[in-house]
Amino acid sequence: MNPFETWTLEAFLRAVSQADKPLPQDLQDEIRRIGHALENHNFNVIREIPALVERDVALDERYKLSYRSLQKQYQVQERAKSLALAVSSSTSYGLESQIAQVLNADDIVGAARRFVSRLDERLTIGSSQDDFWKRGDRVIALASGGAFLGVLLAQIPGAIIGGLLAAAYAWFTAPQVESDRKA
């Protein structure tokens, strides 16, 4: 799947998961048809989703908001939380079958809510791991700079002290990362 297909699917699942009431039966039948096509690895049906959501005003609104949000976050390269990331980091066939199961469920809205919840949970964990590595990169850069400066000024003891002080400074004064803001 390409990024646009994954955005379409994620926006669609998020829109369905936010439904206040069960979807009309004819819409559910069409969604199940798309689910069966995805089970058979027919990705062309993903192109039908925008036309499908237009049949329900509330679903169309939620879908467009979700899709714009995904596009916006991608454009500012802030999108660490997306189905596209999950597709690129895992086997896409496993994810396709999970999405097909959601679209083929008896309670599509409930299944979509559970799927989106698990996706958000998984991506939040991944985001906090990314924050750790961003902070770690800063520590390494400043510690090596401190060690280099220490060598220039006071040889080996200065390098050790300079490296440790710079590492401590980098860890405790690092710019606030996403996981810090959520705490």
Question: Could you explain the architecture of this structure?
Answer:
The protein has eight helices and no strands. It has 183 residues and is mainly α. Helix 1 crosses helix 4 (57-75) and helix 6 (92-104) packs across helix 7 (108-172). The model is unreliable at 87-92 (pLDDT under 50).
SSE layout and pairing:
Elements: H1 3-17, H2 25-39, H3 49-53, H4 57-75, H5 83-89, H6 92-104, H7 108-172, H8 178-182
Helix pairs in contact: 1-4, 1-7, 2-6, 6-7
Quick take:
The chain has 183 residues and is mainly α. Helix content is 79%, strand content 0%.
Shape: rod-shaped
Distance separating the two termini? 35 Å
Overall SS class:
mainly alpha
Q: How many distinct helices? A: 8
Strand content: under 5%
Please describe the biggest sheet, giving its number of strands, its sense, and whether it closes into a barrel. none
Mean pLDDT: 76
Give the helix proportion (percent range): over 70%
Structural descriptors:
rod-shaped, 0% strand, 183 residues, mainly alpha, single chain, 8 helices
